[in-house]
Design goal:
Largest sheet: none
Distance between the termini: 49 Å
Radius of gyration: 23 Å
Order of helices and strands: HHHHHH
Number of domains: 2
Shape: elongated
InterPro entries: SSU_processome_comp_20, UTP20_C
Helix content: over 70%
Structural class: mainly alpha
GO cellular component, one term: 90S preribosome
Protein name: UTP20 protein
Strand content: under 5%
Number of helices: 6
Organism: Cisticola juncidis
Number of strands: 0
């Protein structure tokens, strides 16, 4: 997709690409700013190359305006999601409690996995799955 965006950008040229610049920059910005664990470094390098290409193609000023608008939009979305999560905690405490229990359970499992990888002889006790019991709310 990134190669396609780069090719389209070069094909359209400087004047015709400007209206589409924010649309093209959105996935590139998302890839550059992502910090998830299984991130592919080749994708990050490719997105950086395409951003440099766009910068040369449209000029620094037009690129900066489009990039800042994309950045601002991403920050607004992030803030909106955070606000909605906080409101959901107040509005639906049972859903928030379930989410918190799930997070704690995952954290404990991660800790056990990490200990097992560091000390192969040690076997951590695993939580036995009782399907109906796990679904019930703990009071």
């Amino acid at each position: 997709i990134f190669k396609f965006l780069g090719a389209i950008s070069v094909d359209l040229g400087q004047d015709r690409i400007k209206p589409y610049l924010p649309t093209i920059l959105t996935p590139l910005y998302r890839e550059l700013n992502s910090n998830y664990a299984e991130q592919d470094p080749t994708l990050k390098n490719l997105s950086q190359e395409i951003i440099d290409l766009l910068k040369k193609l449209v000029g620094l000023e037009a690129f900066s305006m489009a990039f800042s608008s994309v950045q601002k939009q991403a920050n607004q979305k992030r803030a909106m999601r955070k606000k909605q999560r906080a409101l959901q905690t107040v509005a639906n405490p049972d859903i928030a409690a379930r989410r918190k229990l799930k997070r704690h359970k995952n954290k404990a499992e991660t800790r056990k996995r990490k200990i097992e990888s560091l000390r192969p002889m040690y076997k951590a006790k695993r939580h036995r799955s009782h399907a109906l019991k796990d679904l019930a709310m703990v009071e």
